[in-house]
Design a protein that fits this description.
By secondary structure, the chain is mainly α. The chain is 77% helix and 0% strand. It is built from 18 helices and no strands. Helix 1 (2-32) runs parallel beside helix 3 and helix 6 (132-145) packs antiparallel against helix 7. The longest helix has 32 residues, at 313-344. Residues 1-19 form the signal peptide. TPR repeats lie at residues 253-286. This is Tetratricopeptide repeat protein. Keywords: Repeat, Signal, TPR repeat. InterPro entries: TPR-like_helical_dom_sf, TPR_rpt, Ycf3.
Length: 377
């Protein structure tokens, strides 16, 4: 009797297991035939039954079936906000059960890469429609799928910035830096966002210090760091740091240009002029050096003109014309520098605008009009 009962129990067990395995197989067959609603119903049953809920095959095909609903012309309407989470959960569960080298585990990476593209496309669609919260949510999910890929994180930072959620944007830039995406723009954008949120000087300077280790020749980063040195009465430290950097790399034109900027701020105009000219000697296409030399000459002319403007009538009659002639010489001296700067960067709006002012000062109406038209193009 006992033997008969055991045999009967075993037969029942096989029948139940077979029924559940049949649900998985039916789901696979319906998926293959493109009947995704039936495939979904079958696989949803299989993942809740104790005989198949711990099978890698069950979870893998659950992910596949739900994933293939996304964007499907017939069954796409069955997908919702939770569908992507279900797909990701299913593939993660597959790996947990089967490992990376298992029969189904080794199929997951390709499917995840496909999922990453689907999620990123959704994020971009929200981004283009300026639906920032939804875009950021999708970018974050895409980053979970491919943690080492930088595209989603970078665009998440852009979306958070557009939303004016600067702290969140900063966190995305921190994430980029953490995963090795340490471009100059990443640091530059982070610094500007920190400034916009009125972060402490220490926090901004810490970012600048880290940035300059990665991009020691960045003029923007060096100049921003100088601002904070000067703001915190550390000009001597800044000067020492620059001079040491120049000793280590004397042929670095950017360092000489930044040194000129610092000397100019300390009102050492002769030293600044020499440093800018040294930068040009090393690099004949150094935009900052040309532009700043032009500014030095232009400002000298403006200072002289201002003195003339403050004279009383009698004094002006005696000395005013001579001062204006001196001023004109400085304006004329600034022109070659600004023109060369524009040659180096032909579309720089600041240089074009300055050339309009200089030619206006000099009474060169035709030239002023020419640059003015260029400015409005």
């Amino acid at each position: 009797m006992k033997r008969i009962l055991l045999t009967a129990f075993a037969a029942a067990t096989v029948t139940v297991a077979s029924a559940q395995n049949s649900a998985v197989n039916s789901a696979i067959l319906n998926h293959k035939n493109g009947v995704l609603d039936k495939a979904q119903a079958d696989i949803d049953k299989a993942i809740t039954h104790k005989k198949t809920q711990d099978k890698a095959k069950t979870w893998f095909y659950r992910g596949v079936i739900y994933q293939d609903m996304i964007g499907n012309p017939i069954y796409g309407k069955m997908a919702n906000d939770q569908t992507l989470d279900i797909v990701l959960e299913s593939f993660d569960k597959t790996l947990a059960i089967d490992g990376k080298s298992g029969e189904f585990g080794k199929l997951v990476p390709e499917r995840k890469q496909m999922l990453y593209g689907q999620v990123l496309n959704q994020a971009v669609e929200f981004h283009n429609n300026q639906e920032w919260d939804q875009a950021i949510q999708k970018y974050k999910l895409a980053s979970e799928i491919e943690p080492t890929d930088t595209t989603a994180v970078l665009y998440a930072a852009y979306a958070a910035t557009a939303k004016q959620d600067y702290p969140q944007a900063i966190s995305f830039y921190d994430n980029l830096i953490q995963i090795g995406h340490k471009t100059e723009d990443v640091y530059k954008n982070k610094v500007q966002l920190q400034q916009a949120t009125e972060a402490s000087d220490e926090a901004v300077m810490s970012t600048l210090s880290a940035a300059l280790k990665e991009h020691p020749n960045s003029v923007f980063l060096m100049q921003e760091e100088l601002k904070y040195y000067l703001k915190n009465d550390r000009a001597d430290e800044a000067m020492t740091k620059l001079e040491n950097a120049i000793k280590a790399d004397p042929k670095n034109a950017s360092l000489h240009a930044v040194l000129g900027n610092l000397q100019e701020r300390k009102n050492n105009l002769e030293g600044a002029t020499a440093s800018y000219k040294k930068a040009i000697e090393i690099d004949p296409n150094n935009f900052d050096a040309y532009y700043n030399l032009g500014v030095l000459e232009y400002n000298k002319g403006s200072d002289i003109n201002n003195k003339a403007a403050k004279m009383d009538y009698a004094t002006y009659q005696k000395r005013g014309k001579a001062l204006e002639a001196q001023a004109k010489k400085h304006y004329e001296a600034s022109l070659p520098y600004f023109e060369k700067a524009l040659e180096v960067q032909p579309n720089d709006q600041g240089t074009i605008s300055t050339l309009v002012k200089v030619h206006t000062r000099l009474g060169n109406k035709a030239q002023a009009d020419k640059y003015s038209k260029h400015l409005n193009q």
